[in-house]
Design goal:
Elements: E1 2-18, E2 21-35, E3 38-44, H1 54-62, H2 70-76, H3 81-98, H4 102-105, E4 118-120, H5 125-134, E5 140-144, H6 151-160, E6 165-169, H7 176-182, E7 191-195, E8 215-217, E9 236-239, H8 241-244, H9 247-259, E10 263-266, H10 273-282, E11 288-289, E12 307-308, E13 311-312
Parallel strand pairs: 4-5, 5-6, 6-7, 7-8, 8-9, 9-10, 10-11
Antiparallel strand pairs: 1-2, 2-3, 12-13
Helix pairs in contact: 1-3, 5-6
Active site: 144 (proton acceptor), 240 (proton acceptor)
GO molecular function: metal ion binding; racemase and epimerase activity, acting on amino acids and derivatives
Cofactor: Mg(2+)
């Protein structure tokens, strides 16, 4: 089997800001597996927060044996971007070989569209209000926060989009004191979920704190091994394939999280439709789906996912799976 890795850049429709920085393009790695005439593809987004770079992930993939299997991959690579791209490419390859969709190979029900959140990046309150007003027709908005001065931003978004449901992503940017100050206002402002309010290493402070709306673990939850440390702190886990290391572990994490009483959110890094396609399978029936990466881009894959009022639709075979 031939394993090829390419670097691809996709310009964003506008500057995307979170509490850790800003970007104007998405840089991704595309893995292409070739077995004779059969081709499988996967995508990952190396993330500096987890000490990943394009070069380091490329090196991990280059070191894999050419007869790699999905089962063997789980043992050779830790959860992360490299394993994700290869795992998803292997699923795609298996589906193409079998002439069956991935959902059928995985024993899942036929997937349906899922309403996805649309993300408003961190900005001045007036700019965020304008973003919200422009997207007020969307049923679910996710707002990037994570500073000590976020209440005016939250108020501004609510003014701009008075009917939309709102979820907040603080990206580890708050202290326990900031979260405690904001939390009494969340219900009033129609917030339905708060994602990773505190840094992952300091989230023990959530134990015993009042949670007026569900709190979701993102940076604190990577795979099934993360679950024991979340008890008493979080109500929901955010499953991202670049954290779990692919679809294989993402499906296992979803099953384990639900069995332990957690709600499930399925999220993404800022990637193309190829990265979102496997995640759509994990997102079936999720409490929150946040697979809006392609909606933030000025350019996408040649064969993109379809988005409409019903949400993000499952991929067609010429994209993935």
């Amino acid at each position: 089997m031939q394993i090829d890795v390419t670097r691809d850049k996709f310009p964003l429709a506008q500057v995307f800001r979170i509490s850790r920085g800003a970007r104007t393009e998405a840089e991704v790695l595309t893995v292409t597996l070739r077995d004779g005439d059969v081709v499988g593809r996967g995508e990952c987004v190396p993330y500096a927060r987890y000490d990943e770079t394009l070069a380091s992930v490329e090196a991990q993939i280059a070191a894999l044996p050419r007869d790699i299997t999905r089962k063997g991959l789980q043992d050779l690579l830790e959860p992360g971007a490299a394993r994700n791209a290869v795992d998803c490419a292997l699923w795609d390859l298996e589906a193409k070989r079998a002439g069956k969709p991935v959902w059928e190979l995985a024993g899942l029900s036929a997937p349906r569209p899922e309403i996805t959140a649309y993300t408003l990046s961190l900005d001045a309150p007036a700019a965020m209000e304008a973003q919200a007003a422009k997207n007020a027709y969307r049923p679910l908005l996710k707002i990037k926060l994570g500073t000590p001065d976020d209440m005016p931003r939250l108020e501004a978004v609510r003014r701009g989009a008075p009917q939309s449901r709102i979820i907040i992503d603080a990206n580890e940017g708050w202290s326990a004191e900031v979260y405690a100050d904001l939390s009494p206002h969340l219900i009033r402002l129609g917030v339905t979920l708060v994602e990773q309010p505190l840094p992952a290493g300091l989230d023990d402070a959530l134990i015993g704190m009042e949670r007026p709306v569900p709190v979701c673990a993102d940076e604190s939850c990577h795979d099934r091994a993360s679950l024991p440390k979340l008890k008493g702190k979080y109500d929901v886990v955010n499953i991202k394939l670049d954290k779990t290391g692919g679809l294989t572990e993402a499906l296992a994490l979803r099953e384990a999280a639900l069995a332990q009483g957690y709600g499930v959110m399925v999220g993404c890094m800022v990637g193309s439709s190829l990265a979102m396609a496997p995640a759509v399978l994990v997102a079936q029936g999720a409490l929150v789906t946040d697979l809006d990466g392609p909606l933030l881009m000025a350019q996408d894959r040649e064969v993109p996912l379809h988005y409409d009022e019903a949400g993000v639709h499952p991929a067609t075979p010429d994209l993935w799976g």
